[in-house]
Structure formats: C-alpha cells, structure tokens
Design brief:
The protein has about 325 residues and is α/β, with parallel strands linked by helices. About 20% of the residues lie in helices and about 25% in strands. The longest helix is centred in the middle third of the chain and has 14 residues. One of its GO terms (molecular function) is hydrolase activity.
Length: about 325
C-alpha cells in the first residue's frame, strides 16, 4: 500500500482533488483561477454553457494554466445549432464562426467526442456529446451532421466509446454538458424535467450507453460530471434539484450546475465550485463550496462521503490552506 500523497501502482496519486465548474453563464473572471489555485486542485473539469457563444469567456478559460478538460454546452452554440438561434444571431455567420472559434481556443482541452490523458494523475477524461440540449429526442440534426458527421444516438455512442477505447488510462472520468439517461425521472432528480409537462428523464441516452460499454472494456468509471439542469427548479421554490446519484457499480454522478455561480452582496462576492476528492481511484467525497472574495470557504455542503450517508454541512469562513 502506498503512503498518503504517493503514487499508486497505476500511476495515480493516492489522493486527488478535482474541481467541477458548472454552468458559467457569463460569470467567470480572473478571481476564479486564483480561487482554484488557493483550493489546491489537481484538475478542473468545466461542463459548458459559458455564455451565448461567449468567445471572450472561453478565451479566458483556455488561458488558465491549471490542468483542465472542457466540454461545450448548448448555450455555446446558441446562435448556430437551431433555426430559432440563427434567426436571433447578433453577428454575421458568413463572416465568423463563433462555435469554431471556441473549439480552436480550447484545442485538445475540449474533450467533446474525444479524450485527454493526464499521465501525472493516472487517469483520462472522456467527453460525451458536445453542445447537448439533453433528452431522448435527437435534436439539431443538421448541426451534428455537418460538424461531426453524427446522425443518431447510436453513432454518437460509437464516437464516445471510441474515445474511451483510445484513452491511455484505465481510470476514466466522463464529462458531459447534460448527464446520462437513467438517473431518475422525478423533476427533482439530477436530470429530471422540471418544466411542463412535469417529470421525465431528460438525460442523454448516448452518454449512458457509452458509460455502460466502457465498463465492459475493463475501464473504471469513478465519476461522471455534468451540468445543464440547474439546481434551482422551475416548478417549485421549496426544494432544490438532487445533485448527486451513485449507481450500483459505485460510479458517482455529479450535477454541478448551481446557478448563478457568482453572487454579490453588499459585504462580499461569493462564487461556487463543486469539489471531488478521489482516493485510490474512487470518489471519497463530493461537495459544493462557496468562496468569499478573499478565497476563503464561506460555506461547504457535502453531498457524498464514501461509506457514509449523504450529509449536508456548513463550514463558515473556513480558511483555505
């Protein structure tokens, strides 16, 4: 057995800290990278919706030097993927292609239909279908056909599985903009539909099928991180969305879309990150932390801790080491 902080036989450090950044929706600034560095994270997973084709914000995220993997969301193709969006487009798409600009800025860190190996961490990150709007209806046919040559959920699953097969490591972290099908159909579930008609599983079937297939390859999938379905619910203000699900195989599914992710008050400015601790290749703890303007933890809500029931706790003004 390795000592705490030392590498394991698989090349993975004994303990890893991962930040998951949920839907940004134009709320990202220079303080975010400072906060992530103060948190001491080893890896940042960003699950899209940076803004409505917000090239400037994507440029800032691409410039962040902390190890990262990114997948773009439906808002990142807001004026390009649908007839409605194209009718509202504020720029001339014949002159510029802002979807491609974002992809070019992110380069290999964009893992939609791809993967990125992290040799120093002993794991690979695989991306689901980029720009997903969620649900079991194949949407935006022309967009996916022209951009990716993908015309169905089956073809989409094959693209994701091919990425997982090509990844160098046997420990795979999946990220999607929307989560996979199968996490529950109640409106309060991680991908549950909270608009009329209320209820129904709005997860991505291609991502679910790809995760299942990846396990048959002998790969371990400790974490699936996503956003899209905001924690605040449309049909009720008396409760929030359930952000976490653990399946029988032990995979932890984390919805990180706590929106808005930056909140200003008269006295302070608070911003949130979801944190995941991996120990020996398994998820040990997941939480949502709010940091104040001094990058100290204002509050912490624990969603999951290994071998313990889900708990919620608040640690006011806990200093970051």
């Amino acid at each position: 057995m390795t000592e705490e902080g030392q590498g394991s036989a698989s090349g993975m450090p004994e303990t890893l800290t991962i930040a998951v950044v949920g839907d940004v929706h134009d709320q990202w600034d220079a303080q975010d990278e400072r906060a992530l560095r103060r948190l001491g994270v080893d890896l940042v997973l960003l699950v899209g919706d940076f803004g409505n084709e917000a090239v400037g914000i994507v440029r800032a995220i691409a410039a962040m030097s902390i190890p990262k993997a990114v997948i773009l969301g439906n808002h990142d193709a807001w004026y390009t993927a649908t007839d409605w969006g194209r009718s509202k487009c504020p720029y001339d798409p014949k002159v510029e292609d802002r979807v491609q600009q974002q992809l070019d800025l992110l380069g290999e860190t964009h893992v939609g239909y791809g993967y990125l190996d992290f040799p120093g961490l002993g794991l690979s990150v695989v991306g689901g279908r980029p720009f997903s709007w969620g649900g079991s209806q194949w949407k935006n046919e022309d967009f996916y056909a022209s951009r990716y040559g993908v015309r169905s959920f089956q073809e989409s699953t094959e693209r994701i599985v091919a990425a997982a097969q090509a990844a160098a490591h046997d420990t795979i972290l999946f990220i999607g903009h929307c989560g996979p099908l199968g996490l529950g159909s109640a409106p309060e579930d991680p991908c549950g539909k909270d608009w009329k008609p209320i209820g129904g599983d709005h997860g991505d079937p291609d991502l679910a099928a790809a995760i299942a297939h990846t396990r048959t390859l002998g790969k371990s999938v400790p974490l699936v991180a996503f956003g899209h379905m905001h924690h605040s619910l449309r049909h009720t203000k008396t409760q929030l969305r359930r952000p976490l699900h653990v399946d029988p195989a032990g995979t932890v599914y984390l919805n990180a879309a706590c929106v808005p992710r930056i909140v200003s008050t008269e006295e302070d400015c608070l911003r949130n990150f979801s944190l995941v601790t991996l120990r020996r290749g398994e998820v040990f703890q997941t939480s949502l932390v709010w940091l104040n303007q001094d990058c100290a933890i204002h509050s912490k809500q624990v969603f999951y801790q290994q071998n313990a029931p889900a708990i919620e706790e608040r640690e006011e003004s806990e200093a970051i080491a």
